[in-house]
Amino acid sequence: MDLYAWIKALHVISIIAWMAGMLYLPRLFVYHVDAEPGSRQSETFKIMERRLLKAIINPSMVAAWVFGLWLAYDSGFYTQGWFHAKFALVLLMSGVHGYLSRCVKTFARDENTRPAKFYRMLNEVPTVLMIGIVILVIVKPF
């Protein structure tokens, strides 16, 4: 049994789940903005956002970090320049994750003041970071 291959597979699975949630959550916010606070629709969005964050995004981020750090250590990639750049982008992605978590809490309190356009633009940030991360991992340009 090749443990490295299993850890890599679990890392990729974790990343896919994390990114799916990171791309979907801001889209929920876009629609939540138009729901009247306290309405049935707004309350449904709150449940969807909270469950997405707690059941999918948070656990998959933790798993991605654990498996990723294991791979970096086991492979020695942590000494390479492309990995340092990738690590910086993953830190930024984690910061976006934290910001989205804060947005979930803001919506839960009916205190959102941002327009749908803000969340449409925010929705692109994980995509751009993901593209950079994938290029660094696959191409290893430096």
Please tell me about this protein's structure.
- The protein contains five helices and no strands.
- The chain is mainly alpha-helical and 142 residues long.
- The protein has one domain (3-139).
- The longest helix is centred in the middle third of the chain and has 36 residues, at 40-75.
- The model has no long low-confidence stretch (mean pLDDT 97).
- Homodimer.
- Catalyzes the oxidation of protoporphyrinogen IX to protoporphyrin IX.
- Belongs to the HemJ family.
Topology, please?
Blueprint: H1 3-33, H2 40-75, H3 81-108, H4 116-122, H5 124-139
Helix pairs in contact: 1-2, 1-3, 1-4, 2-3, 3-5
Q: What is the strand tally?
A: 0
Whole-number tally of structural domains: 1
Note the quaternary state here.
single chain
Could you give the distance between the termini?
31 Å
How do the SSEs run, as a string of H and E?
HHHHH
**Could you say which structural class the secondary elements and strand pairing correspond to?**
mainly alpha
Roughly how much helix do the residues carry, as a percent range? over 70%
How many individual helices?
Answer: 5
Q: Enumerate the spans where pLDDT stays under 50 for 5 or more consecutive residues.
A: none
Shape: elongated
| Alpha carbon gyration radius | 17 Å
Largest sheet: none
| Rounded average pLDDT | 97
Beta-sheet strand percentage? under 5%
EC number: 1.3.99.-
Family: Belongs to the HemJ family.
Membrane topology: Multi-pass membrane protein
Subunit structure: Homodimer.
Brief overview:
By secondary structure, this protein is mainly α. The protein is built from 5 helices and no strands.
